[in-house]
Amino acid sequence: MEQHQSLIKYVLRSGARTAVLQAIVDGDETTQALLNRNLASESAVYNALTELENRGLIYSPRAKRWAPTGTGSVVCDLVREQRETEQALAIDADYWQRHDTAALPSTDVFRIADLVDATVVRATDTRPSQAVREIERRLETTTSASVIAPIFNERFSDALLDGLDDSGKSRLILGTNVLDSLLEEPSIPMNDELEVRVANVSFALTVTDDSLLLSLPLLDGSYDAGTELIADSERAHRRGTKLFEHVWNDAEPVADYIESLDDTVA
Known about the structure:
Strand content: 5-15%
CATH class of the largest domain: Alpha Beta
Shape: elongated
Structural class: alpha+beta
Oligomer: single chain
């Protein structure tokens, strides 16, 4: 691990080395192709090629052609993730400073770098419901949705239920505290087209047909109804789906959860 860290630092210390390694991993095989990309000055490109080869990050399978080694591919992936993470954090520094990223599962499931194209929608003095309305709008216009809800919001619930139809499949993961509160009501409105499970969650997630909406708790653990992270890229949508599936697979069907409560009381 120490060797890999030193290689990453070595690559990042030079803009030319970073650009040349990434270009080779992306498929630019020849020296001329690299020069045509205007990645750096001609001498800097040649120096980077020599340095990367000496470090075992690239090799020449035949004359004037380059390819990444296994190490080079791994280092390139890590360099890209680091840069994308920094870009994602720079989108809205105040948001990341005030919210708890530890609420998310392990980095194998979801990475901050996956939000490199995200925007933060905030409530303002003149538009106090701006974030809430944006979530409503996307729930109303999607054909299917996968939702994690650590709190109960009647507006979100109505938008989700109103948008359900036979053309899509929607699933909902309720926080255990939410279901506990709903069980105290005389009746719980259910919809046969909506699959529901229960889990101990503190972040909110909505994955629609083509977007991801994420709400992390504040540092004190409280829910933040005034801001929403929204990403519309295919990558963010794919990762958001993976995150939902991870929580869904560990979540408990509502009937089983209620039965366990009855057993506890008994």
